[in-house]
Design goal:
By secondary structure, the chain is of the alpha/beta class. Helices cover 41% and strands 13% of the residues. The chain binds ligand F0G. The site of ligand F0G has 15 residues, from helix 4 and helix 5.
């Protein structure tokens, strides 16, 4: 059989509310054409993010009842800790309320003003947390990542020669750690190859610089290695690929809101006893005691179960195939996407699709607005609205929540985007009329031109 099905059935449902075009036009006006400012009740299909939006399994819901809410030494923490140790192999597992809290603690302990932290591409919270310490976040993506149309299979790779040059010019004392984001979210959801992880890890080791993974979507990255990189389909299960990735690192930050099917949670891992002690002291100040770190015992249970389920080969086959299904069905009809489709999202190259809209008029945002107006679908701009003049491309991200939407939902999304594409000359640009000083994409307001 060649049909790849959703490897689950539905036990509990949540109704979706349809709106009329007139209602959506009003909501857009009220929200200043910023989809973050529209209530979820007015969205039909929500592709804003894959973070915290997963459907939990019956096993996860059952595990919630087993949550041990003890302040110290909770059984639920021990369960999560042993699951993480088994999979990732790190000595210390420090729970946090989500990924960015792990980042804040890591960089507060490791970075000094003037330091430099390289990555393939830093996610925006990672960059912001590094800069908060007075350090510099440097992106070193491979050259292939610059061309959205290149079908290079590992566009999340880091440019290893550029890393070597950076270490030479800055000196290893200025570089407290090297990171790799798997998969590379800001760079189009693209995976990092095992070859590249090995090369970066070896280079960091040679210079005695700790090497960390931003592991939010480690399972999707592991599966893409499994199917795209020579030798890994035959000799390694996705779980073994993931274990191998983690064995090459000294630690990781993790948001359980992605590849752990949890609605909240995260953690920080390290093998370094001295660092772990400092990190736990900081954790107690703002997150909580080290055996719960800002989470309820039941959240820790959901994460432990989710980390087991995420590496199921049937799930991963369906997950990667369903993302590619959306990508191929729009790309093969002329909508330019970031090729090849990655793990958690399809990114439309809005700059290329809407050539008549200059960057200063935010083509990605204009497209997000039009897709909502046409069909009630919410997506997010990843371009000049989000990154200002640092934006490498004008992208629109359609992130796919895990286990939430069925193929007919995705067919509806495909139809909507193809209809918008057919009348794309009519889409007009936007002018930003309210610009907040920081993280402007969350609350900026626009006016149609
Ligand atoms: N690192 C990456 C690569 C991410 O994609 C995110 C979150 C984080 C770190 C921070 O994790 O949200 O748990 O604090 N990405 C979400 C997104 C918000 O929509 O891509 P968090």
């Amino acid at each position: 059989m060649k049909t790849i099905i959703e490897p689950f059935r539905i036990k509990s449902v949540e109704p979706l509310r349809k709106t009329t075009r007139e209602e959506r036009e009003r909501r857009l006006e009220e929200a200043g054409y910023n989809l973050f400012l529209i209530d979820a009740a007015d969205i039909l299909i929500d592709l804003l993010t894959d973070s915290g939006t997963s459907a939990m399994s019956s096993e996860q819901w059952a595990a919630l009842m087993r949550g041990d809410e003890s302040y110290a030494g909770s059984r639920s923490f021990r369960r999560m800790e042993s699951t993480v140790r088994e999979l990732m192999g790190f000595r210390h597992v420090i729970p946090t309320h989500q990924g960015r809290a792990a980042e804040r603690i890591l960089f507060t302990v490791m970075c000094r003003p003037g330091d430099v932290v390289p990555s393939n591409t830093h996610f925006d919270t990672t960059r912001a947390n590094i800069e908060q310490q007075g350090a510099r976040a440097v992106d070193l993506p491979v050259a292939e990542a610059a061309d959205t149309q290149s079908k290079f299979p590992f566009k999340g790779d880091m440019d290893v020669e550029a890393l070597e040059r950076l270490i030479e010019t800055e000196g290893r004392q200025r570089i407290p750690l090297v990171m790799l984001t798997v998969t590379d979210n800001s760079g189009g959801g693209q995976p990092v190859s095992m070859r590249n992880i090995e090369a970066v890890s070896a280079l960091a080791l040679r210079h005695r610089i700790p090497f960390y993974l931003d592991a939010c979507r480690f399972a999707e990255n592991a599966y893409l290695i499994h199917i795209r990189e020579h030798g890994y389909r035959t000799y390694f299960t996705p779980r073994e690929v993931a274990q191998k990735m983690f064995r090459l690192a000294d630690g990781c930050t993790f948001s359980a809101k992605k590849d752990a099917f949890a609605n909240i949670g995260g953690f920080l891992c390290t093998n370094d006893d001295r660092l772990a002690e400092q990190e736990k002291n900081l954790l107690i100040l703002t997150e909580g005691y080290p055996t719960y770190g800002g989470l309820a015992g039941r959240d820790l249970e959901a994460i432990a179960v989710g980390l087991e389920e995420i590496l199921d080969p049937d799930y991963l086959e369906y997950r990667i195939a369903s993302t590619a299904y959306l990508g191929r069905h729009i790309a093969d009809h002329g909508v330019p996407i970031v090729e090849p489709p990655g793990g958690h999202a399809i990114y439309i190259d809005a700059g290329r699709m809407l050539e008549h809209i200059p960057r200063a008029q935010f083509p990605g945002q204009a497209l997000a607005v039009e897709i909502y107006r046409h069909a009630g679908i919410r997506s997010v701009e990843i371009g000049s609205v989000m990154f200002g003049d640092k934006a490498r491309h004008e992208l629109l991200r359609l992130a796919i929540p895990r286990r939430v939407y069925t193929q007919s939902h995705i067919d509806y999304v495909v139809e909507a985007i193809l209809e918008v594409n057919q009348a794309k000359e009519r889409i007009r640009g936007l002018e930003m009329i309210h610009e907040p000083r920081v993280l402007r994409h969350f609350s900026a307001r626009f006016r149609p031109l």
